[in-house]
Design a protein that fits this description.
Blueprint (H helix, E strand, L loop, with lengths): L1 E5 L8 E5 L10 E10 L1 H6 L17 E8 L11 E5 L9 E4 L4 E3 L6 H5 L2 H14 L7 E4 L5 H9 L7 E6 L2 H10 L3 E4 L3 H8 L5 E6 L6 H6 L1 E9 L13 H5 L3 E4 L2 H7 L3 H15 L8 E4 L3 H9 L7 E4 L2
Parallel strand pairs: 8-9, 8-11, 9-10, 11-12, 12-13, 14-15
Antiparallel strand pairs: 1-2, 3-4, 3-6, 3-15, 4-5, 5-7
Helix pairs in contact: 3-4, 3-10
């Protein structure tokens, strides 16, 4: 089978298209013919050995896929021929065939393409967990999201209204990315430079109920200042590079929370949680209440460029590679 392989920790450019043997299929596993694979920020970090999970070299990147079931164990919730999305979690997705346990395979609605399906799981399940479980998003609240033109950002813009938000403010670094955020459903868009003052004006001085922050860096203090009383800062990642320090006295001043969002860690300690999430998300996608993402698609042979677009923070929306 064709697959992407990384043999050295020299960054995204180390990703090469190779021929590998298909994986063995255990009796209790689902074999999937992959049509598209998602690209996520951990793929860029792993390619330089900077992620907390360090796969043994050489390895195949890719944590999420979409395709067609080739074989499945008796009694599984999917059957051969079913269109599905799946989670490898961190490695192995950028290949023509993957083998997964049934609890990490999800039936894909007919209305969702393979490319969109490959870009769904990491971001949408993360944001479902962030907004519903950790952020306690309530009906009518206002959400602000940093990095709004990226994968997590556009997922927030798509999902937050379906979960009750009445207003979603997008923070972007350029006017070009503002167009991406508006297309994904932003109520308002502000530039990262001076966002605190812009948010204060937009909210009449009240602030927002939730800040979604996958960026980190030097904006965390102004994010806390942008919260309304009782607001929550959701710490999701650090694509900006620097892990910020929070002076906890700021949490006291306005009775606000800084909340860690570790979706993968939560799922590991809560068996069945992925399927619980999908049971809530799948009907929204099937009905059109939540639009599927419109990813940027690279051919498999250009996987290095796809990963590099996340490292360089110039990706607009979700990025996937077309495998077939």
């Amino acid at each position: 089978m064709r697959a992407i392989q990384i043999a050295t920790l020299d960054g995204p450019q180390a990703a090469e298209l190779v021929e590998l043997d298909e994986p063995d299929v255990a009796d209790d596993a689902v074999a999937i013919e992959v049509y598209a694979a998602g690209v996520a920020f951990p793929d860029a970090l792993q390619s330089r050995g900077l992620y907390q999970y360090k796969p043994e070299l050489p390895y195949t990147p890719g944590g999420e896929i979409a395709g067609v079931v080739r074989s499945a164990p008796a009694g599984a919730h999917v059957r051969p021929g079913d269109r599905v999305a799946g989670l490898t979690m961190l490695c192995g997705g950028m290949a023509e065939v993957v083998v997964l346990p049934p609890d990490r395979v999800f039936k894909l609605p007919d209305a969702v393409s393979f490319e969109a399906g490959a870009g769904l799981l990491f971001n949408d399940l993360t944001m479902h967990f962030a907004l519903r479980q950790r952020g306690r998003l309530a009906q009518g609240e206002t959400v602000l999201v940093h990095g709004a033109a990226g994968g997590i950002g556009t997922s927030t813009l798509r999902l937050a209204p379906a979960f009750g938000a009445s207003r979603v403010i997008a923070v972007v670094s350029s006017e070009e990315k503002a167009d991406v955020a508006r297309a994904a459903g932003a109520t308002e868009v502000v530039l990262a430079d001076g966002f605190k003052d812009a948010v204060k004006e937009l909210t009449g001085g009240r602030g927002v109920d939730i800040v979604v922050d996958p960026v980190g860096g030097d904006r965390v203090t102004d994010s806390l200042r942008s919260l309304a009383p009782g607001g929550r800062l959701l710490v999701i990642g650090f694509t900006g590079g620097d892990i910020p320090t929070i002076k906890v006295n700021r949490l006291l001043l306005n009775n606000v929370d800084a909340v860690g969002v570790g979706w993968g860690a939560w799922a590991m300690t809560h068996p069945g949680y992925h399927q619980e999430q999908w049971a809530e998300l799948e009907p929204l996608l099937a009905s059109g209440a939540v639009a599927a993402p419109e990813p940027v698609v690279y051919p498999l042979a250009q996987a290095a460029a796809a990963i590099a677009s996340l490292e360089g923070r110039n990706a607009k929306g979700k990025v996937v590679v077309a495998v077939r």
